[in-house]
Design brief:
Elements lengths: L7 E2 L5 E3 L2 E2 H8 L3 E5 H14 L7 E6 L6 H9 L3 E4 L2 H9 L7 E3 L6 H10 L3 E4 L2 H14 L3 E8 L21 E2 L5 H10 L3 E7 L9 H22 L5 E3 L17 H19 L5 E4 L3 H4 L3 E12 L5 E5 L8 H5 L5 E3 L9 E6 L8 E8 L7 E5 L19 E6 L2 E6 L4 H5 L6
Parallel strand pairs: 4-20, 5-6, 5-13, 6-7, 7-8, 8-9, 9-10, 9-11, 11-12, 12-13, 15-17
Antiparallel strand pairs: 1-2, 2-3, 4-14, 14-15, 14-19, 16-19, 17-18, 20-21
Helix pairs in contact: 5-6, 8-9
Bound molecules: pyridoxal-5'-phosphate (PLP) and lysine.
């Protein structure tokens, strides 16, 4: 088990995060509760900003907001000087409402609707990442209608087979994202951009997948992309000004995960860009990355109240908590593995093997399988660690369960950043006819 950021055990034997006793947090804000270690999120932003830098290369770190977004997150990311990647009208709307600097917003998506594109064009966001030819045509039409110009990147697929869960691979040849760098008509497509009066193609975007632990996949991505840049220069007469390499840096959730040395990898990525561009006599493009999970995952902890335990006839020892797949669908969806602790019994010895199950009417509603913990009883507080990415952002109202509140903790202060949903919120859009 690993502790992250400001997590510690206080003298009451309770888990403490950001100087706040987790048990007090549950009393003040209820359970389930997403707790975010603000200092750790800021520290992670700085690790990326400080280490993704190299003399002679312009760089940009863009936070992939799909990992975790709310107004307070936007504000924090903006304060730390990162840019923001959004993939939907909803994410863009959040960023605009938070007054995130518009020129630092990137919009992705394999099927952006006309309304989403209009919203992005009218707001004047920094870059739209065009996924395909049809989208280019739609964008051209919309820009004409709105009498606007827009800077874009083209999402390409470098065909890298990064080793991760098949659902979060994004760059195999059959991926739904982007245009293959191997497609024969790439020059035709680039020509469409070149003749456009409204759309200004600055370069390319790729993303090889998520939760990647093999450093070499990132280097392979760079090599393949630079060969592509060389090819489009020679064959299509296109000079690439910007190269966005996406995110995907893996994090520790449990002992099966072995994260790479991030600082070293970030430096090596840029060194490789420099070396290869010199070798190929290419102009060095501006290089961007888009980390999501690695900024927020380890900074999040979900606190649950234990409703009871059950020893089944088949011999399974369940702990029932008051949340589950509605606030963290990753175990059910990907077989993700998490670590958990009993937040009010941090000094007690582990006693028994448990499976932590949620309250949904679904057998697959499991948060953690086979974990050894101190003896657990009703009203204990269970903490599942590293839930800061793709938990709140993927939460649902299945079984009409309200989504939990989100609290930021720092220096002994707790700040509510998202209120707990109420039953009224659940009914908000229902109409009785
Ligand atoms: C285009 C793009 N950029 C960035 C990310 C962020 O990935 P991660 O959270 O693994 O860093 C993703 C998600 O996989 C993505 O699809
Ligand atoms: N939702 C995935 C990551 C998706 C990455 C987005 N392309 C996860 O929880 O691991």
């Amino acid at each position: 088990m690993r502790f992250f950021g400001t997590m510690e055990i206080n003298n009451k034997g309770n888990l403490q995060i950001g100087g706040c006793d987790s048990i007090n947090l549950t009393k003040e804000f209820g359970t389930p509760l997403y707790v975010v270690d603000e200092e750790l999120v800021r520290g992670n932003c700085r690790t990326f900003k400080n280490n993704f830098s190299l003399e002679g290369i312009e760089t940009e770190v863009i936070y992939a907001s799909k990992a975790f977004l709310n107004l307070a997150v936007c504000k924090l990311i903006s304060e730390e000087g990162l840019s923001l990647d959004v993939v939907s009208g909803g994410e863009l709307y959040t960023a605009l409402k938070a007054e995130f600097p518009v020129n630092k917003i990137y919009m992705h998506g394999n099927n952006k609707t006309a309304n989403e594109l209009i919203m992005a064009i009218q707001a004047g966001i920094g870059r739209i990442v065009v996924d395909n030819k049809q989208e280019l045509e739609l964008l051209e039409y919309l820009c004409e209608e709105l009498d606007k110009e827009i800077d874009v990147l083209l999402r390409v697929n470098p065909g890298i087979d990064a080793h991760t869960h098949e659902y979060i691979q994004t760059s195999k040849n059959d991926s739904k994202f982007g245009v293959s760098i191997f497609s024969d008509d790439i020059c035709c497509l680039l020509e469409k951009f070149q003749i456009s009066r409204r759309i200004n193609l600055k370069g390319f975007h790729c993303h090889i997948g998520s939760q990647i632990f093999e450093e070499k996949s990132f280097y392979q991505g760079i090599s393949v992309m630079l060969e592509f840049l060389d090819r489009v220069k020679k064959e299509c007469d296109f000079i690439t000004e910007e190269l966005n390499l996406g995110g995907g840096f893996g994090v520790y959730y449990s002992k099966v995960d072995t994260p790479i040395d991030l600082k070293k990898c970030l430096k090596n990525m840029l060194l490789l860009v420099k070396e290869k561009t010199m070798e190929m006599r290419l102009t060095i493009p501006k290089v961007m990355i888009e980390p999501g999970r690695s900024i927020t995952a380890n900074a999040g902890t979900t606190l649950y109240e234990v409703g009871g335990t059950k020893n089944t006839y088949g011999g399974k020892n369940y702990i029932f908590v008051d949340g589950g797949m509605t606030d963290n669908p990753r175990t059910a969806l990907y077989g993700a593995k998490y670590e958990a602790i009993v937040a009010n019994k941090m000094k007690l010895e582990n006693k028994a093997m448990y499976t932590i199950a949620g309250k949904c009417c679904e057998s697959g509603d499991i948060l953690v399988k086979d974990i050894v913990l101190p003896e657990v009883e009703r009203n204990d507080v269970l903490a599942v660690l590293s839930t800061g990415a793709y938990n709140y952002s993927m939460a649902s109202n299945y079984n009409r369960i309200p989504r939990p509140a989100v609290v930021f903790v720092k220096d002994g202060q707790a700040r509510l950043t998202v209120k707990r949903e109420t039953y009224e919120d659940i009914l908000r859009n229902d109409l009785l006819i």
